[in-house]
Design brief:
With about 450 residues, the protein is α+β, with helices and mostly antiparallel strands. The protein has two domains: about 270 residues, no CATH class; about 110 residues, Sandwich (Immunoglobulin-like), CATH 2.60.40. The chain is built from 15 helices and 16 strands. Helix 1 crosses helix 4, helix 4 runs antiparallel to helix 6 and helix 6 crosses helix 7. The chain is elongated, with a radius of gyration of 32 Å. The mean pLDDT is about 90. The chain binds iron/sulfur cluster (2 copies). One iron/sulfur cluster binds next to helix 13. The site of one iron/sulfur cluster has 14 residues, from helix 13.
């Protein structure tokens, strides 16, 4: 059995980068990947322009500390729900990795999708196939080579600018972005420099860094080994069928050692060396090998999606403890998130006691307590709220304005006085409930808060 190389295949013995020139490949997996890739790109570009309930579908406004996700507005007070969402997404990644390896990396990750469906295509268009590109890079600089390189990098920069501006729209909103685009950068230096930094990062990544992002930077590649096991479905080489490898008629194994699977690999590895950290599960080697198997009239699937267990002649166990645990946790988190978002009150209330005397005696013999109500309208629109007292005391609420109008996202401090006949608080303290109702046609109860009413001791 072959073993994976001890060093990265994209770094030579002196530590210098070895440029990868993956050959183009066509096949059933490439057709599906192309369709999915174009869908991911379309979602990325279109999503900021879609409005749900009058709000941008996804908007992360960091200075305002609010997030809009599919028509729902979240504030720092809602971080609880976002934790469910983020942990749920992480759990989804764990679940799919345990089940199907790096399916995210090879099929959905923007790094792979933009690289293969946009930047690699531009490069092939400008400089030709992998052998022509390799020859061009090795050739001395001529006017023709300069022209090709300049044009290619101009297109890279243009697409990077499109991506960076769209990326910015997720943070500032499409209206603000359009306004900025029609004005001088001097009017919004911070945002402009942010956009330029993203553009430069995208350009650097796709023009030069490329597969090194997956190989040396992405943390997911580092911990995938602990998420997978021998029953995980991954891209693998059938050693039993393929070895001993050799030319047709010279070796009994099915692998004819043509190196086509290596030639198409975007991370430059040989899948026959076993499962490796650099493998992003893109399935290019499957299509490449299937094409060869077809041409030598041997069954396809020498390189295929399968579990290590099956490649070694055992059965694949799909329902394993880790898959079951991840799926239960995933379902629980998804249910908790949607239940929480569906039932959360769109108003937040906090009650505090201002400094000073805890109570006052009124001339009519009642006792008065001063409270400050911090009321926050978490909804995006202007709403009308009423502050009510809900027993057990027969208390009287005095405030400057009730009901209260609050704009979408507005916080307001409202001072209220609660007056209670003394006999009702003979024990020195008693609970009172503040209730907030929303006034539409009729009042709708939203939230309540229990506070303590203080009085002189018995
Ligand atoms: S080994 Fe195959 S699946 Fe893995 S990165 Fe290379 S071409 Fe893609
Ligand atoms: S493409 Fe298939 S036959 Fe050719 S070297 Fe790779 S595994 Fe062997």
């Amino acid at each position: 059995m072959t073993t994976p190389p001890a060093a990265l295949t994209t770094i030579d013995a002196t530590g210098r980068r070895k440029w990868v020139y993956p050959a183009a490949i066509h096949g059933q997996f490439m057709r599906w990947r192309k369709g999915i890739g174009y869908f991911v790109i379309a979602v990325f570009f279109v999503m900021p322009w879609i409005k749900i309930g009058g709000m941008q579908s996804i908007l992360i406004e960091i200075p305002q500390r609010r997030f809009t996700i599919f028509g729902h507005l979240f504030w720092p007070q809602d971080v609880f729900y976002l934790v469910f969402l983020l942990v749920g997404l992480a759990m989804a990644l764990f679940f799919f990795t345990a089940l199907a390896g790096r399916v995210w990396c090879g099929w959905l990750c923007p790094q792979t999708v933009f690289m293969e469906e946009v930047f690699r295509k531009i490069e092939e268009w400008m400089e030709g196939g992998h052998l022509t590109r390799r020859r061009l890079d090795a050739a001395p600089w001529t006017l023709g080579k300069v022209a090709r390189k300049v044009l290619k990098h101009a297109l890279f920069l243009l697409f990077s600018a499109l991506v960076s501006n769209t990326f910015l729209a997720y943070f500032v909103g499409t209206e603000t972005l359009l306004t900025w685009m029609t004005r001088s950068p001097a009017d919004h230096w911070t945002a402009f420099l942010f956009m330029v930094a993203i553009l430069a990062a995208f350009y650097f990544d796709f023009a030069w860094f490329r597969e090194q992002f997956c190989v040396v930077l992405c943390p997911y590649a580092r911990f995938q080994a602990v998420l997978t096991d021998s029953h995980t479905i991954q891209v693998g080489y059938d050693l039993v069928r393929g070895e001993p490898r050799g030319k047709v008629g010279e070796a009994p194994g099915d692998c004819i050692n043509c190196f086509k699977c290596v030639a198409v690999c975007p991370t430059g590895i040989d899948i026959r060396d076993g499962y490796q950290l650099e493998c992003i599960g893109c399935a290019r080697c499957i299509d490449a090998c299937d094409e060869i198997m077809e041409s030598v009239q041997r069954p396809k699937g020498l390189v295929r999606y399968d579990s290590l267990a099956r490649l070694q002649g055992e059965k694949t166990a799909y329902l394993r403890p880790r898959v079951l645990i991840y799926s239960v946790l995933l379902v629980a988190l998804v249910v908790a998130f949607f239940w929480g978002v569906g039932t959360r009150p769109l108003v937040a209330l906090t009650v505090i006691r201002p400094p000073g005397d805890p109570y006052a005696l009124l001339p009519d013999g009642r006792i008065s307590n001063h409270f400050s109500l911090m009321l926050f309208n978490k909804a995006p629109d202007r709403r009308q709220f009423r502050i009510n007292l809900d027993g057990p005391l027969s208390a009287d609420l005095v405030t400057a304005a009730n009901p209260v109008f609050l704009e979408g996202g507005e916080h307001r401090r409202i001072d209220v006085f609660v007056n209670v006949p003394r006999p009702e608080v003979n024990g020195g303290r008693a609970p009172i409930h503040f209730k907030i109702t929303r006034i539409i046609q009729e009042e709708v109860p939203l939230t309540d808060y229990e506070a303590t009413f203080l009085a002189p001791g018995p």
